[in-house]
Amino acid sequence: MEKVKIEKNTVQETLIIPLYGRKMCSEKFPELYNDVFAKRLCDRLDYDFSELEKKNKSFLYEFGSLEAAMRQLDIMWEIQAYLKDHPKATIVNLGCGLDDTGKACNNGLCHIVNVDFPDVILVRKQLIVEQEREKSIACDLKDYSWMEEVDGTNGVIFFAAGVFHYFRKDEVKTLVLELSKRYPGGCLVFDSVGKLGLRLMMSKAIKNMGINDVEGLFYVNNPKKELNWSNRIKVTSKGYMLGYYDMKSPGIRFSHRLLARIGDKIIKMSINRMDFE
Ligand SMILES: C[S@@+](CC[C@H](N)C(=O)[O-])C[C@H]1O[C@@H](n2cnc3c(N)ncnc32)[C@H](O)[C@@H]1O
């Protein structure tokens, strides 16, 4: 089967890290996490994985794979909870990359929408077959025309995994306020890190974006306080690594859980949920 090329040093390339992390975590800790799509997708990409393969055995990279998996597990937890009350809701994957969380949560009734830049959606369509009740929209998230194609009549849950780090703070706020205005009863779930975390995580990306510091970019040290943007939005927040699951699965060591605790407490890694009233 022909492979699909992912260009280096593009925004598109940022989808590789979480995808490879999900594949690696499925191989190393299958009892915790098993993403059947990730390995198949990596095999179909024309991308030089050798740098990542080399680091594959290092403790930090192993931890990175746990990060990718925990984020997906947490978000799936929130989607499944929302679908219990709104079984016909639309699940919207903002900045979807090659992530198939929508399908993993499919209850046979919900609708799935994936949004990303046109070049990413092009790659996605070559690799992933859309199911019934699923569609992909090629659009910049900052151009709100994509919202016209999202029907929230039966409920809607938006999620953004690893996406808002590339946004400025005011851009996330404006997007959230627009969603809350258009979709009362809807909900948004996304991950965030504190200032220190963003500095550690994004040093290369920040240089590529041509800026010197994270100031102005989206980071959150105290979600409940700092995301309090409207009295019509209820904000809840949990630890990203340990807020939903205790990570006590075979193969996961005490040192992994210790680093996970540091991630949640000091790096302020969070999963935030906003309910639009
Ligand atoms: C780190 S990747 C995460 C991909 C996916 N959510 C996952 O967890 O595997 C970030 C994704 O956000 C997308 N993205 C970033 N800014 C965007 C924007 N303004 N509009 C649409 N997509 C965007 C990128 O193209 C990329 O696919």
Describe the protein's architecture and organization.
By secondary structure, the protein is of the alpha/beta class. The chain has a single domain (4-276), classed as Rossmann fold (3-Layer(aba) Sandwich), CATH 3.40.50. 40% of the residues lie in helices and 16% in strands. The chain has 10 helices and 9 strands. The protein has helices spanning 16-28, 36-43, 50-55, 59-85, 101-104, 118-127, 169-182, 195-208, 223-226, 254-265; strands at 4-5, 45-46, 90-94, 111-116, 134-138, 156-160, 187-192, 233-239, 270-276. The protein has a 7-stranded mixed sheet with strand order 5-4-3-6-7-9-8. The chain has a two-stranded parallel sheet with strand order 1-2. Helix 6 links the parallel strand 4 (111-116) and strand 5. Helix 1 (16-28) crosses helix 4 (59-85). It is globular and about 45 Å long. The protein starts with a strand and ends with a strand. 38% of the residues are buried. The model has no long low-confidence stretch (mean pLDDT 93). S-adenosylmethionine is lined by residues 11-12, 14-15, 18-19, 95-97, 99, 116-117, 120, 140-142, 161-163, 166.
